[in-house]
TrEMBL record:
It comes from Salinicola corii. Keywords: ATP-binding, Carbohydrate metabolism, Kinase, Nucleotide-binding, Transferase. Residues 4-227 form the Four-carbon acid sugar kinase N-terminal domain. Residues 250-407 form the Four-carbon acid sugar kinase nucleotide binding domain. It is an enzyme of class 2 (transferase). Transmembrane segments: none annotated. Catalyzes the ATP-dependent phosphorylation of 3-oxo-tetronate to 3-oxo-tetronate 4-phosphate. It catalyses: 3-dehydro-D-erythronate + ATP = 3-dehydro-4-O-phospho-D-erythronate + ADP + H(+); 3-dehydro-L-erythronate + ATP = 3-dehydro-4-O-phospho-L-erythronate + ADP + H(+). This is 3-oxo-tetronate kinase. One of its GO terms (molecular function) is ATP binding.
Amino acid sequence: MALIGCIADDFTGGTDLANNLVKSGFRTVQTIGVPDTAPEDVDAIVVALKSRSIPAADAVRQSLEALTWLQTQGCEKFYFKYCSTFDSTAKGNIGPVAEALMAALGCDATLFCPAFPATGRTVYHGYLFVGDVLLNESGMEHHPLNPMTDASLARWLDAQTRGRVGVLGADVIKRGEQATRRQLAALRDAGHTLIVTDTLRDAHLTTIALASRDMPLVTGGSGLALGLGALYSAPTSEVAALPEAGGGALILAGSASNRTREQIEHARQHMPIRALDPEALHRDFSATLDAIEQWAVPRLGSPLLIHSDTRPEIVRKAQQSLGVEASGALVERALAELATRLVEHDIGRLIVAGGETSGAIVRALGIGSQRIGPEIDPGVPWTWTESDFGPLHMALKSGNFGAPDMFTRAWEIIE
Ligand SMILES: Nc1ncnc2c1ncn2[C@@H]1O[C@H](COP(=O)(O)OP(=O)(O)OP(=O)(O)O)[C@@H](O)[C@H]1O
Ligand SMILES: O=C(O)[C@@H](O)C(=O)CO
């Protein structure tokens, strides 16, 4: 019987959350969608969906299905995981999914805690910061699918929901669990059902987790999981040793985030690298992939990187001529097909950059669940999985996570 049932709105976010749950002492498994079989001997289950950027009604339906399944696994506390940069639009999907989960669980209030201080995401007076800049000045305002143009989480959430949004301030949270619990109750009494929590440092995550002990549902980035260990008396897990790694090493990046761009620039000095042009894919999909495959196969003896060309003018051009969704889907399909073509050539270690991109690749490789292993950087663990193509060490990297040298350093961790 698992204790904590989690629903993640993308696959990199799922492994990020699973990683923090393991750090908090929970034996954790991540499943890709609702699985056919129930995991055994686990404290926490993360059901990873690809529901961040789909129509809100579909995201709600998939999330409720995951919730129903997690309830049958005996979970008593539920956690809706979304991005630490609150990726969503005025139509959703964070607000509608949270309100649907609240209704299904019969809870009158929940909290919204996207912060993850170790990766620079903090919240103050309800405004989300990335490092020392506001969310809407961090580059996230240019995100191809979910441009984040306002750092006020209260305003953002208000546009997506029916309930009343309130902010639980850092001045209260720093006074500890009792003060925070009282303020939560006061906000609820005043009719606030959706409560955005400030968070400046990890200690605040523990305070928030303890003060929300009675809430059946919490929502947030992965940071809050670092506080949840304090709620349960017998954390048991240690980060699992993964089977020995071997085989070729490949990085597939479809992420358009600033940090991925820095990592690609760093990798350029150290490994063969090739860009994927959406216009060329549109002109002749198969021929473009054939050319990349022919380039890659003789070079698979050491790590190599294939990435989508995300220079703003290229993305703009592709989006204008093909449409935002269609151009994104085209690039995802190309990277997923390259993954299936190249793992056939004895790839044993794969890093994927980008949540949507990871979703497409994980599905194409027929992956059902992942074991969480050692962390490369905050929020990015190595995982091990049995794919349709054989065993695979895989790291799913969220767009803005990982140090600039992650693509060259990651391999040492599983040597
Ligand atoms: N040149 C391009 N033109 C159009 N769309 C692109 C281009 N390059 C990448 N994309 C699309 O942009 C989206 C990037 O989303 P993805 O979630 O993979 O990365 P991210 O947003 O940086 O990461 P995360 O969601 O983990 O923060 C994908 O759908 C991808 O296919
Ligand atoms: O919370 C985060 O930032 C990540 O896990 C993620 O979901 C980015 O796509």
